[in-house]
Amino acid sequence: MSFTEDGNSDADISDSFVTDAEDSENEINRPGNLRNGPWFTIIEPNSFVIDRLPSFSPDHGPVGFDANLSPYDYFEKFISEDDNSLFDIIVEETNRYATTTLNANDPTPQGRGNNWKPVSKQELSAFFGLLLAMGIVRKPSYASYWENGNKNALTYTPNFPQIMSRNRFQEILRFLHCNDNALAVERGQAGYDPLHKVANIIEFFNRTFEENYSNNYDTKNRAGSAKMTRKPNSKGKVVKAPALVHKYNETMGGVDLGDQFIAQYEPQFRSLKLWKKILFNLLMTATVMIKTGRCSGTSLVYVHGWFRTFMQSCRSIIVEDRVCCERNSMTGVSCTDETAKWNRGTTRNIEPKPLVSIQLKKPKLGENTMGNENVPGLRDTPFYVSKEEFKEAVNASPMLPLFEIKGTIMNKSFKSNPSVRTQESIEQVHGEHNDLSSCAKCVQFLSKYVFLTDSQVVRLQTETTLQSKSLLWKDCRKLRITASSAHKVPVKETTDSTNFIREHLHPKFVGNKFTKHGQQGEIDAKVYLNSNGHQVQEKGICVSQQENWLSASPDGIFDGQTLLEIKCPVPSSSWSTLDQLFESGKYDVGKDENGDLVVKEKGSRGIYLQVQLTMYCTGLKQCKLLVWLGVDEHKYIDILYNETYVNNQVTRLKTFYVKKLLPCLVNEIQDDRLMMSKSFCKVYAYLIIYINTCTFA
Fold first, then answer.
1. Which parts of the chain are coiled coil (predicted)?
2. Average pLDDT over the chain, rounded to whole?
3. Cβ-contact 342, 253 below 8 angstroms
């Protein structure tokens, strides 16, 4: 029931009041002092409880600003607090991250991490100042700012090395951090924040904006009627703008001009980490706004509104350079987002870019497909493990009537029984990888593809004498660690092995002028040896009898009992003779105290490791290394078998094979991303395609 201000009900009012067309004849009386006054709805006083009264807000606009302050003073008000400033947060987290990283990874003697010193607030201020200066003085790289003036006096910048050294600048940039990684919640768990890296910065700026700006702007909205229809586009469809676009338009302020200033003086900073881009963009935006707006009300309300909208948007699902919003909407890319897109056509700017994460065609030869679930298999037709699986698929397909036509080959093959018992498929789940027999899935794979009988070892050596020209040779190398690639295996278990495994299973290197030089030099050296009364026996791939996961491809057997390894270095401008090469110290062959030629155990090319593992696989105890430049320029180095060294290396390589390479190898073949040749299957005595892990070329 409605009441007037004096408490009388509408039933007691005698004055007339017209409500609408239907009630125009009804007259209601009310007191004269309320003839033109408002009506109020009275509710029970205890029907709701206010938790707290809203805090008093002063007038709308900046709080505590002096018009005579300099731009840096304005900047200080936003990055500094009484007890903690923005730079204090970054200094604390940067030093924490540097200490954690250096303690987790043992630095090398030559590493820059050995010289790390905790960064100070003053030093961090100088660091950001140099970044801003890089936006004004444009150079192609970081190092060019510290170049000596003798190289180019016109572009010399002497202030940079005076403020901070180049190595120190790169160290701070490397360890720059804004939050503690130990507090981050993993993706998929409750409380996960994709912007955890800059969460401290977000909270800091929200707090400082609220302290320095009073958002108490009163507004009055005129009441109006809602439209029954909306204007459609040319195709009769109503165009709906995403909610994020509305927020962007509400708080955009001078965004176009601000972005233009930032683009003109953007620092030389390149990083794939989103949080670093956000951090530097915030600092640039604050700098531009403080410089151009001098903390005016318009500038501050824009910065605060833009900051909140931008951070909320970043917490949405990020798809390339667009952000997904409500109702499956997606923001476009405007011409102000990139300086290179000015004056570009509107249609080309606002249309979404094509998706690149979905591959609708088979990968090209040599393309990286390892571990990519979106890449289809290499087979053209489905492959069925058993006859029952094949019949079940045909019965469920629209092609069933074709298979039921009697007298046809399709009907006979569909009704026939398998003549050979099919093999069981490999286990679907990996177990622990402590040794070769700890994972049931890998054990089945090893017994089918890696472990060889004596007859298979001999046949494999015979059929792979062409080595790199043989498909069988290439396939067998993918299943094992080879002597020539063993030096590339990561030494530490904590080292990322993705690149090595990818290149091992899906090699992209097809040769260059150096490999061609080596192949031709090897042929010339063998011709020379045979013409001088020596016998060089050709060998294919040699699988170790003790460890079938290890193999080697010797260049030949010299005079029946000695391993022959030929190396053909390419002369360069720094050396023209082998003596000059050996004395330079950059090659794996050098001279000892007596002046004799020796092979270094830790050479960069891994020659010593390759030779020792090859002797281990072939069972030979001595090797003759031939470094060949030509008939008139070649050297022999005798190498004896080092059993202790080999045992240590085999143990290390076996651990890597079991824990890292073998699981990836099994998954790649089972998921049909690794293709094996027909000759490979024949050697392993599989005369039909037996399980869903082998694909014919």
1. none
2. 72
3. no
Measured between alpha carbons, how far is 531 from 511 in angstroms, rounded to an integer?
29
169-180 in b/e form (b: 16+ CB < 10 A) is bebbeebbbbbe
In angstroms and rounded to an integer, the radius of gyration of the C-alpha atoms of the chain is 38
Class of 513-647 in CATH: alpha beta
C-alpha span between 28 and 10 (Å, rounded): 8
Per-residue pLDDT of 594-651, as tens digits, reads 888 899 988 888 999 999 999 999 989 999 999 999 888 899 999 999 999 999 999 9
- Residues 6 or more apart from 458 whose CB is under 8 A from it? none
Decide if pLDDT at 394 tops 70: yes
Confidence of residue 689 (pLDDT cuts 50, 70, 90): very low
Strand 562-567 and strand 622-630: the pairing is: parallel
DSSP reduced 3-state for 194:
coil
Q: Which residues contact 53 (CB under 8 A, 6 or more apart)?
A: none
- Residues facing residue 562 across a β-bridge: 558
Please provide the DSSP assignment of 218-248 as one string: -------PPPS-----TTS------HHHHHH
CA distance 137 to 145: 9
Q: What single DSSP character describes residue 436?
A: T
Sheet holding 542-543, edge to edge: 481-482, 550-552, 542-543
In angstroms, rounded to a whole number, what is the distance separating the alpha carbons of residues 371 and 673?
8
The answer to whether the beta carbons of residues 695 and 487 sit under 8 Å apart is no
- Residue 258 tokens read as 């601000």
Contact 321, 329 (CB under 8 A): no
Predicted local confidence at residue 418, as pLDDT: 66
Structure tokens at 606: 């891994």
CA distance 550 to 529: 29
Phi-psi map region of 672: left, alpha, beta (phi>0 left; psi -120 to 50 alpha): left
Neighbours of 479 (CB within 10 A): 22
Judged on CB neighbours under 10 Å (0-12, 13-18, 19+), 435 is: exposed
The residue extents of the domains of the chain are 1-49, 86-177, 196-216+241-350, 513-647
Least confident of 3-7, 194-198, 269-273: 3-7
DSSP code at position 275 = H
Whether the Cβ atoms of residue 295 and residue 74 lie closer than 8 Å to each other: yes
Tokens of 625: 């290394």
Sequence-ordered list of residues with C-beta below 8 angstroms from that of 558, at least 6 positions apart, any chain: 529, 534, 535, 536, 564, 624
Nearest to 163 by CA among 131, 115, 118: 131
Q: What is the pTM for the complete model shown? A: 0.44
